[in-house]
Structure formats: C-alpha cells, structure tokens
Design a protein that fits this description.
Two copies of one chain form a homodimer. With 308 residues, chain A is an alpha/beta fold. Chain A folds into two domains: 117 residues, 2-Layer Sandwich (Nucleotidyltransferase, domain 5); 175 residues, 2-Layer Sandwich (Nucleotidyltransferase, domain 5), CATH 3.30.420. The first copy, chain A, is 40% helix and 19% strand. In chain A, strand 12, helix 8 and strand 13 form a beta-alpha-beta unit. The radius of gyration of chain A is 20 Å and the shape is globular. Chains A and B meet through helix 7 of A and helix 7 of B.
C-alpha cells in the first residue's frame, strides 16, 4: 500500500512483482481514522485474494525496525506504532517503509535497477524522494532516515525552502520546481510563451510541472528553457551525491520521469561536467525508472514478503 | 607506508595496531624513482623486523582491486600497477589504499571509531580527505573513489577552487582554509590582530593554519573568529553529508584535529541546526580521531594483514 497525503492506494502483488488487483480510498485526518481506512482497504483486497502480509510505503521517518512512524509530514501519525496497530486490525503481518525505499527496491527486483550494485534512486514528484541500494540491499543509514536528498543545498543563493534552508535540490528539481521556474521565466520574458502566460494571468497555480513538460514537448521555447534548467540542477545535484556515494547506477523515478526524454541527456552532460575528478573516474549510468506509479506498492509488497 | 607528496613514512605495525619501528625518505619525482624509494624504505624495515606484507596509503584514485593507482595529484603514478611493481622489488605482498580510507580503518580498529556502525571519517589537513565505514567495512562506492567530500560545494558563491568549481568544502574547512580565512579577515580589519598582521605584511604565506590555531588558543580575537568560521562550515558540510549517509558517528582527523577543542562544540551546534529534519531525528556523535599522524600507516598495515 502507498499511503499518500491525499489517497491510499493498495495492490495485490505476486512473487514476480505483478500487480493482480488494486483498491484505494481518500486519506482521512486523525490517527485512528487513518488506521481504520488502511485496514479497510487491505480487508477489501483480502476478501478477494489470499494475502500473506502487507507493506505500507509512505513519505516520512520510519523506525529502524520498520514497524513505527516517527514523523510523516502529510499524514497524522506521530511516533506511532503503525505496524502493530494495523496488524491488530487486519490479523496480517505488517511492515512500514519509506516510499522511496520501497520504490527503489521494486526497481531493483523488477525494473530499471535489476542486477545493479551501488544504486541511487531519485524520485522527482512534488518534491524529491530518494533511496540508496548497496548490492541490492537498501542502505538506511544509522538512524533509518538516509537519504534526505531533497534538501541538499544544490543551488547557491537559491530559492528559500519550507525546511528553513535555501537552494534545496527539490526547489529546482521536481514537478513543483518545474512550474516555479516557468512562472519566474514568464515574469521576466512575458512574450516568450503566450500559451503559458495566459495560464499565469488567469492563476499562477494552473502552471503545473505536467503542463510545462507538455508545452516543452510541443516545442514551446520557454517551457523548453524551464526543462533545461531542471536538467542542469539534476546533473549538478547528482554530481554532489556521487561525490559522497559513488554509484554505479542512478535511476530517475517519480511523476516527472515520464518526461525524462526531454531532460535526461542534458542532465547526463551536466553530471559528467560537475563531478569531482571528472575525466579520471568512471561515470555512473543514469536511467529512467520502469515501474511508474506502482513502484512503491510493488516494493512494499516485496518487503512484506521478505519480512514475514 | 604513507606515501605523501613530500615524504614517504613507513612503520612496522603489530596485530594490535602498535607502531614498533619507523623509517622515512623524501618523495622523489618519476615513477621508477618513487618505486625504488618505496622499496628501499620497506627493505630498511624488513632488515630489522619479520614483515609479512606491506600496505601503501596515498591520496589518489585507487583501482577497485587495491593494486593500482589511477591518479594521485601529488605523486608521479598515472594508471600504474603499483602493487605488482613494489611486490616485484620487495618480494612482499602489497596492497594500495586511499590514505583517508586507511586512516579511517585504523580509527575503527584501534581508535575513536571502535565499535561504531555507520561512520564518516573526515581528515582536515591541507585539504579534506574522507572515508565512509558501514559496520566496520570501508564503503568504496561502485568505482572505488567514494567519497570525494573535499569538493562538495558547501559554501554558496564561495571561493574558487583548483578543481574548477567554487565553494568547495576544503576551501573553508582545512588547515589551508583556516589561513585563507585569517588573511581575508586581516585585510578587512587590520587592527584586530597586530600579531597576525605583522606576519601578513611580511609574507602572507607565513600565516598558516597551525599559526592561526595557536593564536586562537592564546585568545587572539581575529584568529578566534577564523576558527569559528571553520567550525561553522564544518558543521554545515557534515549536515550535507548526513543528508546522504546518515552516520552514527563522525570522526574528525588530520592535522587540524589537534585544535579540535577550539571548534568542535561550535561545529556540533551548526551541524544540529542545519540537518534536514533537525529535531525529528537522532544526531550523529562527532568525535576527534585518536591515532594522530600515524593513522594512515597503521590502517595500511591492517589492510595488508587482512589481504595477505
């Protein structure tokens, strides 16, 4: 199950990573209401399939035993023993995992990272979710919170971020960032993109990353420049991560990765140019994720299978 | 053996990490001359002790099999099969390792990182050398070059670096950086430190990190401010590394760590303040290295013992 801020989406996944059935519901506020909803959606699928265990993927800090949620910015759980509570409601073994970790594991077992050794998974969506794999095993760090790549300061003197810092990677490299960049560019050069400008005048909130990417695919020069800006910062941020982690493979996932053909070659060039010791060390391969929006569900199921 | 840009220093190390004897020589230019010197110094010790194997620690890119040197900025070797060449000259099994990796391993087995799980080792010297340990094992990345922390861009809009980037961590957090910061401060406020200013007027090169640290220990206000600047960037850079690697422990080594009491508490506060999710995740411990300048020699010997 992918427990998101607006909806919970669950799937029945077999041993080969195939998604056999799905169910979903809106995400309620309040811990008990959320637990009731999660249990009800699992129960709906359990009524139709023999289910051995369930994994919950969510954006937040998970306890090292994969049973509790310390903090999840878009959910009601705070220092909550989520696995025990859902297990009590469903009678199933439950594990909890960071959604980017779950998605990365799915890509490793069934997708773009199959067979790779040291891998960085970067999901570009509303923000950045990230995961590290070493020889197919998730690297969780000492406190189970690694990595927090979205708030690496990649852009000197950059946009302020809700986290209190500025120039954070996800403020320049995400669906939200793509929209922000386009709106900034329209303010500077209103004539460059009449189509996007009409949206801004109407309501800047209507300029979304998806719409900017679509305009870029249609050849809109301003949207193309906004995507090129994302490509630049994607490459620069990956170079920074590589200086710490030296991956063999980088997998780009999340909703924005659907537009990867627009920016991945550019990002590769920026990455190669900014890497410390460029020219004297092998470059990581950079690939697009293969499992799309189902990755977190498939990965959570895989974890549940292993843990139970 | 620690193969440095100005001298090679070798030691005989027993199974408990104790240094029994030492020998050294100036570092010559040219591959063959360097190999002859390394072999001669090893031979000098082998004449006095029964030696089973030798490890060479150096600053540079090492091949994944720990037998070759791809590139070492201060040494003549370029894509050189160093282990085979030294083995042919000495008749001993030889391994080669990055000097920060060797020092980190020594601290893990015999020093400040004993028993620690996920550890970041940062050596502050002329530049920054760094190493990562996961459960006592060196993490080398996919290409054996992780981590290159000295050139992380930590300071937005910061000093240009010889690597081609700007704001690199080691330009603000190293012995060299401490001197640079002091010289910049003297230019802005000449009256603040008559003692250091006399050095600058004479020859700015006489302001060294060691002298600035000594002046700070004596209460010099400008030197104290320069050390506080180093502490700030040490904390900020460590927060960035922790966002990727989430360590349990950070060990600060290198020559500058002799002055750690002047800056480590400040650095801890900056680290805690800049960490993503500060207040919602456990903090890494930050400690000073224990083995001093012998760390690389002791670690290289430990590796040689394991590898042979």
């Amino acid at each position: 199950m992918d427990v998101g801020g607006t909806s919970v989406r669950a799937g029945v996944v077999d041993a080969d990573g195939a998604l056999l059935d799905t169910a979903h519901a809106p995400t309620p506020r309040g811990e008990a209401a959320l637990e009731a909803t999660v249990a009800r959606v699992i129960g709906e699928l359990a009524a139709r399939h023999p289910i051995g265990a369930a994994g919950l993927a969510l954006a937040g800090f998970i306890t090292p035993d994969l049973r509790g949620v310390r903090f999840a910015p878009h959910l009601s759980w705070r220092d909550a023993p989520v696995a025990d509570r859902i297990a009590a409601r469903t009678g199933l073994p439950i594990v909890v995992e960071h959604d980017a970790n779950a998605a990365a594991l799915a890509e490793r077992h069934f997708g773009a990272a199959a067979g790779a050794s040291t891998t960085v998974f970067v999901a570009l969506g509303t923000g950045i979710g990230a995961a590290l794999l070493i020889d197919g095993v998730l690297f969780r760090g000492a406190h189970g919170v690694a990595p927090e790549l979205g708030h690496l300061r990649v852009v000197p003197g950059g946009r302020p971020c809700a986290c209190g810092k500025s120039g954070c990677w996800e403020r320049y490299c995400s669906g939200t960032a793509l929209a922000t960049t386009a709106v900034e560019m329209i303010a500077r050069e209103p004539g460059l993109s009449p189509a996007l400008r009409r949206l801004v005048v109407d309501d800047p909130g209507r300029v979304t990353g998806r719409r900017v990417a679509a305009a870029a695919r249609d050849g809109d020069p301003l949207a193309t420049a906004a995507v090129a800006d994302l490509a630049r910062w994607l490459g620069e941020g990956l170079a920074l991560v590589a200086d710490v982690f030296d991956p063999e493979l980088v997998v780009i996932g999340g909703g924005v990765s659907a537009s990867a053909p627009l920016f991945l070659d550019d990002a590769r060039e920026h990455y190669a140019a900014r890497l410390t010791g460029a020219g004297r060390r092998p470059l990581a391969r950079i690939r697009t994720a293969q499992l799309g929006e189902d990755a977190a569900v498939v990965g959570a199921a895989r974890l549940a299978r292993d843990a139970c």
